[in-house]
Amino acid sequence: MEGVVDVMRQATWVTPIAPDLAQVSFAYEDPVQAQRVSQDLVGRIITANLSTQSAGLIQLVAPADPGKKTIGGKVRLAITSLGLPAGLVFGVVLALILRRRAPA
Predict the structure, then answer these.
(1) What is the pLDDT of residue 22?
(2) By CB distance 3.0 to 4.6 Å, which of 26, 32, 45, 53 could disulfide with 37?
(3) Distance of CA 15 to the CA centre of its chain
(4) Over the stretch 11-25, which tens digit does the pLDDT of each residue have?
(5) Eight-state DSSP code of residue 35
(6) Is the pLDDT of residue 64 over 60?
């Protein structure tokens, strides 16, 4: 029985797509059986979610990528705040260039 559980664990994927949406996949040589298992897993997840609504929702969270670097809050704010002035300068320069090229 332990071997069957290990095989099922390796063949099952629950992938978060959005904060309130997940994709359940089960790979098996028989497509009909794979679909039945996937539907059963989805049913069990929904039942577990409904039975725990008073205690909170079941949330699937994607694991953090250890190789991914994140930008701190102040640095991100500084970079974001440069977007508007840079866009305005670019727009003015582009308008001046196009105005000079326009036939009189």
Answers:
(1) 77
(2) 26
(3) 9
(4) 888 888 877 777 888
(5) H
(6) no
CB 27 within 8 A of CB 34: yes
Distance CA(69)–CA(49), nearest Å, equals 33
Q: Compute the distance between CA of residue 48 and CA of residue 24 in angstroms, rounded to an integer.
A: 15
Residue indicated by tokens 């069990």: 44
- Asked if residue 79 has pLDDT above 80, the reply is no
Cα–Cα distance, 27 to 25 (Å, whole number): 7
- Predicted model pTM: 0.43
Could you give the CA distance from residue 95 to residue 98 in angstroms, rounded to a whole number? 5
Record the tokens describing residue 64, joined without a space: 């953090």
The position carrying tokens 């326009």 is 102
Question: Looking at the DSSP assignment, which residues form a beta bridge with residue 94?
Answer: none
Q: Which amino acid is at 70?
A: T
